[in-house]
Amino acid sequence: MKDLIIKLTEISSPSGSEEKIRGLIRNSIEKYVDDIKIDNMGNLIAIKKGNSKGKTIMFDAHMDEIGIIINHIDKNGFLRFSPIGGFFPIHAITHRIQFQNGVIGVIGEELRKDYSKVTPLDKLYIDIGAGGKKEAEKYVGIGDVGNYFAKTIVTGNRIIAKSLDDRIGCYIMIEAIKRIKKTNNTLYFVFTVQEEVGIRGARPAAFSINPDVAIAIDVTDTGDTPESSKMEVKLDGGAAIKIMDSGMLTNRKIREKLISLSKKNKIPYQLEILERGTTDAFGIQITAGGIPTGAISIPSRYIHSCSEMVSINDVNACIDLTVAFGKEYND
Question: pLDDT digit string (tens) for 273-319?
Fold first, then answer.
């Protein structure tokens, strides 16, 4: 468990640059599936074949992570950047950025006049230690992308990493693929691209597969930290079965099936209502004439930072629920 999670989370693959993570996932699953392919968007689609008695189920987790893209290099060699996805200034200052070629820089800020306010992105820069523009351009160019550079920590019952959103969902699907030996259902495990910039990969994948039902697996926020927003989800509370978020209401029938499977298989679960944010489930649900869609969420603290945190117990519950749905869904 530990080694694979570290590999999945430490790899650098922001939205639009998913090649590295896709290769790692493919190598991890190809001997456990009947077919595997990459579609035109770059989604990795792995298939476990069932029979004519079963349903077609699509499981989804996105491979990409938030990041930055260089838009200007000044005369002194400092890099200005734009966000890729929800890259928040409040998490950024003095953290390290790793570019695809391995170059690492530090996020700095212009002189702040009011320390009670968060410095906006256009007042931040990346320092790679260059002595000027020409030296900086030897290492980084306009359009180069990067993401947080941080080591993954697995300690006790906690995992802390830069890209648990949504590499932990990818890990859950990888483990489910390994554990499901035989089922009547035909299972599509779709590792999608570009979720962080507008759910761009899941929609065409869902359209081409047109499954009977779909389940998206992604992180969700928690309400268990000091003076956090009011939310029932907490670490160690089990798999979070989504009721709604800001983008969707999950299919009632699918939601009730997830709850009944949790009870039947004694899988710890909790119910999720997320007021801000959404997942690939939103895009899948409104594709191809409408697809009955549910979501299994992994409770996570400090989302979109370099130190996202989840519970190993919750991760295991999400694996168990994914396996149960893949094997037992027959409605």
Answer: 999 999 999 999 999 999 999 999 999 999 999 999 999 999 999 99
What are residue 146's DSSP bridge partners? 68, 99
Candidate list 175, 195, 196, 272, residue with the active-site label? 195
Active site residue 195: yes
Q: How many CB atoms lie within 10 A of CB 106?
A: 15
Closest CA to 234 of 277, 270, 278: 270
2-65+162-328: in CATH 3.40.630.10:
yes
| CA nearest neighbour of 205 among 36, 41, 35, 49 | 41
Distances (CA, A) of 304 to 4, 81, 163, 231, 298: 21, 17, 8, 18, 14
**Going by C-beta distance under 8 Å and a sequence separation of 6 or more, which residues neighbour residue 145?**
14, 16, 17, 67, 68, 69, 70, 84, 99, 100
Amino acid at 235: L
The phi, psi pair for 229, rounded to 5°, reads: -65, 150
At residue 308, the pLDDT reads 97
User: CA-to-CA distance for 324 and 95, rounded, in angstroms?
Assistant: 40
Instruction: Spell out the CATH class of 68-148.
Output: mainly beta
Q: Do the beta carbons of residue 320 and residue 327 sit within 8 Å?
A: no
CA 235 to chain centre: 17
Cα gap 67→175, rounded to integer Å: 27
Q: Are strands 145-148 and 96-99 parallel, antiparallel or unpaired?
A: antiparallel
Q: What pLDDT digit, counting tens, does each position of 77-117 carry?
A: 999 999 999 999 999 999 999 999 999 999 999 998 888 88
Helix (H, G, I), strand (E, B), or coil: what is residue 101?
Answer: coil
Domain spans of the chain, in order of start:
2-65+162-328, 68-148
Burial class for 317, CB neighbours closer than 10 Å (0-12, 13-18, 19+): buried
Mean pLDDT of the chain: 96
